[in-house]
Amino acid sequence: MVTPEGEMPMQLVGKEEEEEEEEEEEEEDNSHRDPDDIAHARGIGLGPDDGNRGSGGRVGGNDKTSDNSLKDKDKDKDKTENVDRITSLPDDVLIHILGFIGDAKSVFHCGATCHVFYRLLPRAPVLSFKDSTVVEKLDVDDAVTSAVLKCQGLSHLLVETGSASHPWKLCSRTAVRLWMTHTHASLCELSICARLKPGTMHDILICTLMFCRKLQRLEVSPPRKSSIGNVQELDWLVLRTCEPQTCLRELRLTMVGFGQEDEGGGGGGSDPAATGGLNDLLGLFPNLVLLQLVCFTGLTRTSVVSTELRALCVAVPISPHSERWAQNILVDAPQLEEVLFYGIRDFEFTKRTNPGRLVANGCHDLKFSFWSDRLLLLDLHQDDDEGRKWHAIELIALLMIHRHTLVDLHLHLDVWECDGPTEDIITEAFYQQSFPLLEVLHIKHFGLGTLLQGLQPGTPAFNAPNLRDVWLCVELQYCTTNFVETFLTFCPKIEKLVVELKGGSWDYEQGLPGIKQLQQDHPIVDLRFLS
């Protein structure tokens, strides 16, 4: 259509007016929208991207910059949301998180990176210092002390520096006293597994009795050494002046000296009041349920009398004379459930002491008449050069008395050769009587294992329906195959069967083909040939 110059067709004029009205409506709709959203919808850039726009307001060649800008904004938004989430949590929950972290380095890192955790650092309940926390050239006293003094409500303090010989990794008496006096109102558990300067263990016990009246678990375990010079001696003249601490429930001490020097319990001319024993410890801490002593000196004759004790471990005596062991321990503890003795010449239970688990390793004299009649676990270990051989009647007593209750039976001991009638009784006690609850049977002395395999009855049998784990040490003989096969045949739940075989028997070669064939037929049989 031809129109006068300077005029537009009416259709175009109307179309232009409609487009202007649509743009005005769009601007009104966008008046309450975020500028970033509008720009994104229109395909235009903001800020530094404006110079890259092409005609028509479309994005030019800088798409990555725009995307990165949006990602950075998303990250900032996420950080803000995370901070909001942390600040919205109650303080009790955040303190519980710090306690769950525990590691001192990580706890203070949280405080350095988050102002919320920094505010709560004085209320951190747990601080744990490991070798990785205390660097090689950092004094352990300074590192732990500076951290402990920043916490007002510390309930658990654990210091473990290993057996490093660096002099700056020793815990001093002054530092330990400062830790305990500063945290006395809240400390519930203290564990120090580090090298100690002389007298430090004594100071820890004194602070426990005088200041830390809420302490429930205490462990002082410097690295084990065979030297007498590394023993932490206790001063009983001072300890006996303290009031008993009734909150402590678990006590573990390593490398501790009690001061007794002769079999009579005296000090060899020293004041008897300066020496002590297990019962003296129980007098200071009458509500102990667990008492563990490892690597000790000075206990020659002692007793344990407690109505609360449930677990007792007395192990590895140290003496300047190889023949001087702890002579005797008398135990009177009606609640006792678990006992472990190592290197104790003689121990005795009263009639009302009936532990369910007994481990006697390297003990010289064992008397069945004083043992519990409800044993679930029995572990007896005697090397040939440590103690006497057993008489056959003692083995018979063990099997007959405890066969109804035993779940785990571990025997590493030798028995004297027995005559015909005694052999028949052992055969009946081991093979023909029932072990209804027995699940684990380990016979790890070749003398005992070889004796039992030679006493098999004419009709093989072994009545232990719940047996799952068997370990046998025997000399390989012609009858070994039948001995092992008895357990496979009469113990339907068996899952593991280890057989250690030793040569020396005249019929070794005759027994070899049969035992190898048995292994092929039963893959669970694990044969181990010893040279």
List keywords for this structure.
about 525 residues; alpha/beta; Leucine-rich repeat, LRR (right-handed beta-alpha superhelix); 16-stranded parallel β-sheet; three-stranded parallel β-sheet; 16 helices; elongated
CA(first)-CA(last) distance: 116 Å
Which percent range fits the helix content? 25-40%
Radius of gyration: 38 Å
- Give a short account of the largest sheet: 16 strands, parallel
What's the β-strand tally? 19
Briefly note the structural class of the backbone: alpha/beta
Uncertain spans, ≥5 residues at pLDDT below 50?
1-13, 32-61, 262-269
Give the number of helices: 16
Strand content: 15-25%
Q: pLDDT average, as an integer?
A: 79
Tell me the overall shape: elongated
What is the assembly state of the chains in this entry? Answer: single chain
Biased composition (Gly residues): 44-60
Biased composition (Acidic residues): 16-29
Domain F-box: 86-120
Region (Disordered): 1-83
Concise structural overview:
The protein is an alpha/beta fold. It has helices at residues 10-29, 35-42, 63-88, 91-101, 104-113, 115-120, 140-148, 173-182, 200-210, 236-239, 278-284, 392-402, 420-432, 446-454, 480-490, 508-521; strands at residues 126-129, 156-160, 189-193, 217-220, 232-233, 250-257, 290-297, 301-305, 311-317, 328-332, 338-342, 347-349, 357-361, 377-381, 408-412, 440-443, 469-475, 496-502, 525-530.
